[in-house]
Write a structure and sequence with these properties.
Elements: H1 2-6, H2 30-39, E1 50-52, E2 55-57, E3 62-66, E4 88-96, E5 101-104, E6 120-123, E7 130-132, E8 147-150, H3 156-164, E9 167-168, E10 171-172, H4 179-191, E11 195-197, E12 204-206, H5 207-214, E13 218-227, E14 232-240, E15 246-250, H6 256-259, E16 268-270, E17 273-276, H7 278-299, E18 305-310, H8 312-324, H9 332-337
Parallel strand pairs: 3-4, 3-18, 4-6, 5-8, 15-18
Antiparallel strand pairs: 1-2, 4-5, 6-7, 9-10, 11-12, 13-14, 14-15, 16-17
Helix pairs in contact: 3-4, 4-5, 7-8
């Protein structure tokens, strides 16, 4: 919602996803996706935690982001993997016109920054989307000509609708990995704002209600509200009662003070990575310093840890995952967000806390 307020002077374009054929960039073919899926483990299938002494250090198994802003002058890498590519999915919405592409304004916001190396999905409506596996396309959408930002594309309903009807090469793949997880976790990225107006019923829905309705076998096990001066931020941990995997959801921009974080640019480092967006690095530092002591015990009980977020939340997830998987145990940033991996344990469900807007925790 903040993007709409901050950028209200921009004209919204009314257009359908019209495209004559597929462009030269294309996506990968469905056959290639299936071959890759057959030889690559999905969430819940392998363990990449690092061992230090008698402690097994936790890592982020996969990230799922939606309309995230780019984070670094060089694409962040997963240093725990030989390929240096993250597992998961980075999604952004895009409308194809005759002479241009209208993309989510957040995904195209930073002029000189790149996204992480993670499979990338450009979501189109009522036609084939473009999917780039492996390292994805850290340069899209900003660094390729013919893309322009559009405010309305940032709305999470577009992500959920398009993921729910996802087609690649004229085949419905919405129920296939990793896209089915992308749809489920989109509700968590949306629900991370505590309460939303559901566009179908026009009624308010909470994070707890979204989990119950759209994530079978998942339960809310931690909810932390942290005052970072700019806002009272919410961090959520949900666990799958069958696999014992966990998903950490970061809340996106919801105050004007937080919006200006997006304008700070890349003039700092985080966890040994240079030229990381200073606003996100600083935001994550304080979130981890103040909130991780409340989350660390629960994270250690997870089989796998994944993260998600929309907008700013997606960017925080990206930087958090890069740091967690760096193995840089002597780094201050790593130390404040470090968590261990112990024997997985089913945690008790909790209810979400009272609505935090305009209330300092």
């Amino acid at each position: 919602a903040l993007w709409h307020l901050a950028c209200a002077h921009l004209e919204l374009l009314e257009a359908d996803d019209e495209c004559v054929g597929r462009d030269a960039e294309g996506g990968c073919t469905l056959e290639a996706i299936q071959v890759r899926a057959g030889r690559s483990a999905g969430p819940g299938e392998s363990d990449d935690a690092n061992e230090t002494g008698n402690e097994t250090l936790g890592t982020v198994y996969a990230m799922f982001t939606y309309g995230a802003v780019a984070t670094s002058k060089s694409p962040l890498e997963d240093l725990s993997q030989p390929s240096r590519n993250f597992r998961g999915l980075r999604c952004y919405t895009e409308t194809i016109l005759a002479a241009t592409r209208q993309a989510d304004i957040a995904a195209i916001f930073e002029t000189d920054l790149y996204h992480a190396r993670v499979p990338t999905l450009a979501l189109h409506w009522k036609k084939d989307s473009d999917y780039f596996p492996g390292e994805g396309r850290p340069d899209l959408p900003k660094h390729v000509e013919g893309r322009h930002g559009d405010i309305d594309h940032h709305d999470m309903r577009h992500y959920i609708d398009r993921l729910s009807h996802l087609h690649l090469n004229h085949v419905d793949v919405s129920k296939k990995d990793p896209f089915n997880l992308g749809t489920q976790f989109a509700y968590m990225a949306w629900g991370a704002y505590e309460k939303q107006k559901y566009w179908v019923s026009h009624k308010d829905v909470t994070m707890e209600q979204l989990i119950k309705k759209h994530l079978p076998h998942w339960r809310l096990v931690e909810h932390v509200q942290q005052d970072t001066l700019e806002a009272v931020d919410n961090l959520w941990l949900v666990q799958n009662s069958q696999s014992l995997d966990c998903l950490l959801a970061f809340e996106g921009t919801h105050t004007f003070e937080e919006f200006f974080r997006n304008l700070e640019g890349s003039n700092g480092g985080y966890c040994g990575f240079s030229d990381v967006h200073h606003g996100y690095a600083d935001k994550l530092y304080w979130l981890m310093k103040l909130s991780m002591p409340k989350l660390r015990s629960s994270l250690s009980k997870c089989n796998k840890v994944m993260c998600t977020g929309h907008s700013l939340g997606g960017s925080l997830c990206e930087v958090f995952a890069a740091c967690a998987n760096s193995g840089r145990t002597s780094d201050e940033h790593y130390q404040i967000q470090q968590f261990s991996k112990q024997t997985p344990e089913l945690m008790e469900p909790i209810h979400q806390k009272a609505f935090s807007r305009n209330v300092r925790a």
